[in-house]
Amino acid sequence: MTKHDQDETQFDFRATTLPGAEEALCEELRELNFSGVRLNRGGIPFRGTMQDGWRACLESRIAQRILLLLDRFPADSAESLYAGAKGVAWERVISPRHTLSVAAVCRGSTLQHSNFAALKVKDAICDRLRDISGARPTVSRDDPDVRVQLYLANNKASLSLDLSGEPLHRRGYRTEAGEAPLRETLAAVMLRVCGWDRDTLLVDPMCGSGTIAIEAALWAANHAPGLDRERFGFERWANFDDAQAERLRALRGSLRRAVRPTRPRIVAADRDEQVLEIARANARRARVKLAFRHQSFLDFQVGGAEPGALVMNPPYGVRLEKEPDLVHGIAAAISRLHGWRVCLLAGSPDYERAIPIRPLRRVMLSNGPIECALLVYQVP
Ligand SMILES: C[S@@+](CC[C@H](N)C(=O)[O-])C[C@H]1O[C@@H](n2cnc3c(N)ncnc32)[C@H](O)[C@@H]1O
Fold it and tell me: Is the CB of 272 inside a 6 Å radius of any atom of ligand 1?
């Protein structure tokens, strides 16, 4: 990866997301004009220049991480993993002044323990740098300059660098949250799967810290989600020099110019006034305009409004146990929304049982440790 290479050479990337969101990510990456996008369960592959990798970090609303594939080789033992990892030209991105971390996933391979495999890769990187420059980089778990990923499946190793740094759902605007806040990337998946046209009325009647409504407003304005991130992982690599920083500034500038000041009506409501304050503060930080309402969804009235999209993430778990009638109240309120598109992230099967309409779409997603059903309805 010389400076010249970085302008022209095509690299293999992989965008990762939460399990169940792969189709939505694939659709998004194709819409964003990335090449070689293909549906794949372990992360969506695409090809492009290094700047395409940066662009994915800046523009994808659904990807959790963007990985740059460095090498693939057979590794059926600790020795072959070490030798393969030592053969990679790490000195192009890591100097002894840098800190690094190695994360590993092992599946169906002789080496089963991911911590051991990660340690072998870390040793190979440090030994190679010591052989070349006489010094080793140090390991940092919390805030490494360079994040390396090993994926070892069926005795084949793939070594990648993580361009993102902090996971991409950390957009920067949500510094405060209510209970059970939704990841920003999951909110973006909901909006896409729902089929919202980015123009008609959108309501989140249980907005909590406002994630769904804020993500909707950013999407409608074509505001790239990474524009307000202070920095990405690749900006800390050894080969990221002034010329590259200039190119990144130009890319950010062109994305900023593509922001359009459209303003669909987006309403964020919650019955909890304190959490609404948090949502207002988050919206201010994201610089989006939302209409806030302090209201229980059980009293939700459409009034004379045109049908729109209702996108919601109702309570689950312990919260729900305390309020057994809430599910039926929500199901009844949804049934009154004639002509509306409703998208509900259900962390409990009770919701689907209680809603007397067949969902148009049903996507199973992992929201952290909780298996959720993303249900899309067209209310007759
Ligand atoms: C799972 S949280 C939503 C989290 C939100 N998506 C976020 O990203 O922060 C559920 C929210 O529903 C609200 N809620 C519960 N019952 C409600 C009701 N009847 N009407 C309106 N909001 C309600 C709670 O106050 C809570 O903020």
Answer: yes
